[in-house]
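Why does this matter for the project? Reviewers at the last site visit asked to see concrete outputs rather than summary tables. In response, this paragraph embeds two records directly. Each consists of the residue sequence and, immediately after it, the corresponding structure tokens. Nothing has been edited or filtered.
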Amino acid sequence: MSKIFCFAFRFKFISPNLQVSFYSSQPKRECKKNIGKVVNVAIIGSPNAGKSTLINRILERKICAASNKVHTTTKLTRALCYENDTQIVFLDTPGIVTVKEQKKYKLPESMLAACHKSLRCADVIGVVHDVSNKWTKDKLHSDVINMLEVVKDIPKFLILNKVDMLKSKKQLLTVINNLTNGIIAGNPIPNATKSKKNQEKLQGYSHFSDVFLVSALKGDGVSDIKQYLISNAKVRYLQYDPSEWTDQTHEILIEEAVRAKFMDFLSQEIPYNLITKLEYFDDVAEEDKIVCSVSVECPTDRLVRLISGAGGGRLQQIKSHIRHDLIDMFKKTVIIDVQLKVKNKSTSEDII
């Protein structure tokens, strides 16, 4: 994707009054009285739009679980970045989920409220939209629009993701026009025309302050979002120590990384029926490495054999990819063992 083309459709708006009420549902932390600049960013959007991948790319660390399946993110996760005396607190949220989907994929009930919780914590809201999906590229999810309407006083920006997958870049102006209802930062888009479908019923949001065109997977355009957020940070006490990069425990991070990789490798709804649990963890500081063991509980023996593959080959492949992701996350050597277990069996065999 041409950078010239990207910037041609970049609409900048940085309000001097970008100050909103801060409502935090975070647990109280010991205040270290460090003053810097802070911006809390809620990243929302439809399932599989690339929210977690975008955050990981901006932070250059694979903190948020990401896979090629919907509903990989099941809980509100904070990913932290500290640069130029500025702390960016990303609030990675689950995609929009219905009660029917929650039951189908056996998702935690907390997912239903996670997006709304993130909005209450945010200073600014980024909406990630997948423009490669031909069925939904020209309209925002109705639940996304409804959530944005509830927090009208919080600045919002639109992130068009997967633009590298569009066959015709000329489609972008039409997509931008449809998703913003032809209005950005309170101004109409010059020479823009609405599709006949959207003229009858608006399916976008009219109050975005800016639009970014990115490929989260390749990293194109993500640095512009980072600089945009840094420029909109406000002076206040730092919520986290500058050395921290997430609010999640090592246990949760490892379990989520394992779960996400099984979702990448297994078809249909199989990975949603697995339960991952960290059995052993040791951060060997003197050797700068992590040693851990994770069990993956399967409903049946048949599924254990299916996942393991001939001679355990598939499981070895999955484990190799998990190790790579954990090295990218912790930035140190990781030794991991993965065991498949059958649910409700008192004993289990190590498949590896």
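We now turn to the second protein, recorded in exactly the same manner.
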Amino acid sequence: MYMIDRLMCASSPLKHTTKKKVSPMASSSPTKNSLRNTMEGVEAEIVIVGAGIAGLATSLGLHRLGIRSLVLESSESLRVSGFAFTTWTNAWRALDEIGIGDALRQQHDRLYGIVASSITSGLPTSEMSFTTKASHGDHEVRCVRRKFLLEALQNELPSGTIRFSSKVVSIEEDSGGCFKMVHLANGSVVKAKVLVGCDGVNSVVSKWLGFKKPAFVGRSAIRGFADFKRSHGFEPKFLLFVGKGVRCGFVPCNEGTVYWFFTFASSTKDKEIEKNSAKMKEFVLSNLGKVPDKVKAIVEITELDSITYSPLRSGRPWELLWANISKGNVCVTGDAFHPMTPDIRQGGCSALEDGVVLARCLAEALMKNSSTAEAKEGDGKEEYERIEMGMKKFAKERKWRGIVLVCTAYMVGFVQQSNAVVVSFLRDKVLGSFMAGLLLKRADFDCGKLSIS
């Protein structure tokens, strides 16, 4: 049995008191140090760049299988920008596999449908229930606070797994080709046997693999999070308003909190508001059209430090066809792999899928013929080849899923936010139910079990 012991990161600022029962696989065999000091710096078995959703999900998935990893995060603490995201059926399957689904369910109310309305007339254009059956069981949709999700992932990882203030600036191969030398901004070097890039749209790892920078799609998003002192009184439904070239949504997380977003076509004037929260709020309120006053009040009560601005970027689907999702002992997941616009709310959900699939593929590669591998501990080439095959398996399994999601998000965003007369008519009169149905169709996906045979 291939097992990796606890990381010996004495310098890590994290201290965890929460302990989670580990799978039997994690306690059935001798252990092996996963991090040690060398003449060249620090040597680690598996290095994950980025402590976002994809990075922490991958690390926790590996941990559940008895494999330790080191997560390098550039910021000083967990990044919770974006505030919340809609978590669809596919994401809950992944969350259950890594063992944190039930804890998050207790903090977030279940949503039972989506109501789309015209921002011009204020009248509903389509409505869809989330209570329909999926091919893998019932649909489940909730709006999850990003902070709660990241903390739930962090708290289940062993102390020392995450190293904050560890910005990766470059990557190079060692002379033997079996390790990657990960250079950090503070001058230190981490020698990695496996390198996983989960470092977002500006990924250093994806750039090393040859990915092009995600393209700006000409739209931007303002997001906010409203915290009511008492119950907000909204039904547990996703409220979507579309028209006049904008798209805005209001989604309850629980009885006291509502997440909202406002996406729009960008212009040169945006420079005046993108770093000023007060102007962001004013801009959103002035462009909400005939959205009901009760809904507008959600934006009005939002604190300024709970409002953010970000340009929207997307990967190019045709480039994913021939992109090197993996190369040797390196691969990418999440936004570093398939950056997409938020129009189908699948960015974070698909990142959770990636984490389960990659953990499974890596565990299969590392544990295969482990007794033979341990007997030949000095023979790194054989292990490198098994890791490479595991990475290729992950890339093959996830490539088309990524392409489909990126394409769907781009198409839905174009239709829902178009101001063209014909497209607007079709959207409001014909395509409303079809577009809403696409959300459930893309969520009707099972990434499989975390366990390996």
